Give the backbone structure.
Amino acid sequence: MPAASLDDVSDHLALAVDELLADPGVKIVVCCGAGGVGKTTTAAALALRAAEEHGRRTVVLTIDPARRLAQALGLTELDNQPRLVKTDRDAELYAMMLDMKRTFDEIVAAHTDEQRAQEIFGNPFYQAMSSTFSGTQEYMAMEKLGQLRAADRWDLIVVDTPPSRSALDFLDAPARLGRFLDGRMLRLLLAPARAGGRSMFQLVTASFGAFSRTVQRVLGSQLLGDLSGFVEALDSMFGGFRQRAEHTYQVLQDPQTAFLLVAAPEPDAIREASYFAERLVADRMPLAGLLLNRVHVTAAPGLSASESLRGAEVVAQEHPQTAAALRAHASLVQRVGREETVAARFTRAFPAVPVATVPAQPTDVHDLAGLRTVGATLA
């Protein structure tokens, strides 16, 4: 592949962010990318702009447990329910942060009677799974997104996902849940309830003999009993959860959804963005564009680094401050060149994916004014 030029990214297809945010046919925007690239800030800026500039009733959902979103929106904290963001403009913007245990509790309460719900809540396996079980966060994120969309309360839902490889788990949640529900071991654990109340150990012993006795010795009868009770209690509601998760997955494939990759012009971040883009294309997810964040620019692009360094040598003795400024400019031009080269790895690999850029900000974004600046720059 030939070396990238400084024009490769600037001449690339531009992403019309304002058109995307204003489009009434777009109901969900999913921001995804590597960690540390400003993804949470970007999601908040997009949501704020959609609400303030385009009059859309917007909610931004973060799955990342970091508190940056709450701070930037002027909220003391975020929880599992949408909270109104107070702005000085006539806008309806809400924000929330996924609480996976509370979401799981809400599902149980909504799809079982009170007595069965209390049995589930008190089961040690449920308490562990709803708080720490691998994949639960992604399952609950899919569920919460489905709830928000089904409520039909919002014009636009903006989702801030975890760093990209974890966000892939978000996409995989329905399939992983289906494999779990259809697994052989789960069917065995459900067998006692489906066999008319025979004890789990009678049934498993009859089926597996020495194997079941070994499992019982390793795990203990109480642990196996808890697991059996947990699976039996959830059997009636898991099928519905899987169906809803698969429906949400279909919603993510629909044109009403727009995936936006967020990256910085750094090798690791661009590599992650490319990895995710390949996956989205393979899964027929609507990839709307790349948001290239923290891009450095120069006010004098016509002055090359080599010219600046030669000029600095000439004036160094009589004008040291001018020489220092020329050297700083040369360093900046070189950095811009490196960033353009790295970003071009993505644009050349995905020429049909439009790009919008955000110049590097002089300070961290920590309030609504900063979010407005980011949103305006994107647009």
Q: What stands out?
A: DSSP finds 17 helices and eight strands in the chain. The first strand starts at residue 28 and ends at 33. The radius of gyration is 26 Å.
